[in-house]
Amino acid sequence: MFVLAEFKDVVRTPPSLFNQKLQTSVADYLNGRLANKVVCNVGLCIALFDIQSMDNSFIFPGDGAAHTKVVFRYVVFRPFIDEIIVGKIRSCTKEGVHVTLGFFDDILIPPGSLQHPSRFDETEQVWVWEFDNDGNKHDLFMDPGEKIKFRVTAETFIETSPASSAKERELSENTEPKIPYTITATVNEPGLGVLSWWETRGEDGEEEDDENDDGS
């Protein structure tokens, strides 16, 4: 789910930060610039992992800041295709089930990737799996807040750059904002779906733990 990505950049350190250690000011700059940002075809940047190398700093004429070429590694969220992850249902719409991991919300399970047969309940605004157990039919609801296990099937990156002209800014204001990174998933497989569906229960109806209380 998390990978290390290597980057190269030239970091500008203003004179006001010369009293700090260079590595500290560079690390603060890189975290401020990349944390929680999506890099196209790389993933969602989480935090700086380490600085691999720093070249000598240069001060150019007319600019009192120090410019340092840096090679560094960043922790990036980018699950691999077919990876199985547990998240929480954020909401349900006709487009499918929207899942969140807490720090990443743009995960969609489309209708065709839900258990069959499933229907969208307009009143409750939830998807419902019409489960048939040897003729005993039950409605299993996919309620917001429920934990759900899914398998990643696809990812989509969209290049989003700031509007550079008044016309582009006007067009962007009249259109829905683009999501730079989205994940598509499925739950239409044994063992996937809302976790509470697969909980085992004892004869008294209480949930059974996978392990004994003493850990044996």
Main sheet: strand order: 5-6-7-12-11
Beta-strand share of residues: 35-45%
Globally, the shape reads: elongated
Judged by helices, strands and strand pairing, the structural class is: mainly beta
The CATH homologous superfamily of the largest domain is called Nucleic acid-binding proteins
Annotated CATH architecture of the largest domain: Beta Barrel
| Percent of residues in helices | under 10%
Please tell me the total number of domains.
Answer: 2
Could you state the order of secondary-structure elements as H and E? EHEEEEEEEEEEHEE
Q: Would you report the number of β strands?
A: 13
Radius of gyration: 24 Å
Count the helices. How many?
Answer: 2
Q: CATH topology of the largest domain, what is it called?
A: OB fold (Dihydrolipoamide Acetyltransferase, E2P)
The low-pLDDT segments are 200-216
Largest sheet, strands/sense/barrel: 5 strands, mixed, barrel
Overall average pLDDT: 87
CATH top-level class of the largest domain: Mainly Beta
Distance between the termini: 30 Å
Spell out the key features of this protein.
single chain; 216 residues; Dna Ligase, domain 1; OB fold (Dihydrolipoamide Acetyltransferase, E2P); 2 domains; disordered C terminus
Describe this structure in words.
- A hairpin with a 2-residue loop joins strand 5 (84-93) and strand 6 (96-100).
- This protein has helices at 22-34, 166-173, and strands spanning 2-13, 38-39, 43-54, 66-77, 84-93, 96-100, 107-109, 118-121, 126-133, 136-142, 147-157, 181-186, 193-194.
- The model is unreliable at 200-216 (pLDDT under 50).
- It has 216 residues and is mainly beta.
- The longest helix is centred in the N-terminal third of the chain and has 13 residues, at 22-34.
- The protein is built from 2 helices and 13 strands.
- It has 2 domains: 2-77, 2-Layer Sandwich (Dna Ligase, domain 1), CATH 3.30.1490.120; 84-198, OB fold (Dihydrolipoamide Acetyltransferase, E2P).
- The strands form 3 sheets. Strands 5-6-7-12-11 form a 5-stranded mixed beta barrel.
